[in-house]
Structure formats: C-alpha cells, structure tokens
Design brief:
By secondary structure, the chain is an alpha+beta fold. Helix content is 33%, strand content 36%. The chain is elongated, with a radius of gyration of 20 Å.
C-alpha cells in the first residue's frame, strides 16, 4: 500500500515537530529564583528569569495578591506535583511555583505557604 520510506519519513517529521515544540516550551518557561515578602512595603517581590534572559524583578502588592494552593491527590509522588502554588494579581496568574519547574523542595513550598498565612493575603485551597 505505502512504501516503507513514506512511513519512516512521516515518523521522523512528526518526531521532529514534537521535539521542536518541547524545546520551545522549555525555552519559554519562567523560573522563579527568589521570593521575598516585605511587610513594611506590603509587597511580594519575585526574582525570576527565563533560559535566555537575565534575572528580573516583579512586585505584587499584598492588597492585589491572592494565593491558590493545589495539593495532588495521587499517592505516587513521581506521577504528579505534591504541592503547587499560584500567585495571582486580582484574577491574572502572575507566577506558578512548583518543585519540578523551580527546583524548590516540598519543605520550601510549605514554608512559603505558612509565610503567606501569616500575612493578610487571601488563600484558596484546591
């Protein structure tokens, strides 16, 4: 029906497209380097970077900020993220913080969660 070179060529072109999409996805990720809570200025400062950029700062006022916490329901930790934190400015997502992307340990993520609980910031658990 089809010559074998057609199937092989199609396979390689599909694999190349998927590989290219994966590379573009990895390049466009935003990595959080540092998270600082300033109670005097009432703001959260994010130090972040992408693969090809220098570190940048972004500030989020306490009055505009919201934290959403998502805990995984899977028992196997290698299947999913045990804890993911989303910082919002009003309704817009500013940062997603998770272990696999940002390299923070589960203890550090829990520490961030406890710090946010100590300041007047709305927290939503999912």
């Amino acid at each position: 029906m089809f010559p074998t070179t057609f199937i092989t060529d199609t396979y390689y072109s599909i694999a190349t497209v998927f590989l290219l999409l994966k590379v573009i996805d990895e390049i466009s990720k935003v990595f959080l380097l540092e998270l600082t809570f300033d109670n005097e200025q009432k703001e959260i400062t994010f130090l972040y970077k992408t693969v090809f950029s220098l570190p940048k700062h972004k500030r989020l006022l306490f009055e505009d900020a919201k934290l959403e916490i998502i805990r995984s329901k899977f028992k196997q930790k290698w299947l999913s993220e045990p804890l993911t934190l989303y910082f919002f400015k009003k309704r817009k997502e500013i940062f997603e913080v998770k272990r696999s992307k940002d390299g923070f340990s589960l203890e550090t993520l829990n520490s961030i969660w406890k710090t946010v609980e100590s300041i007047p910031l709305p927290i939503y658990r999912v």
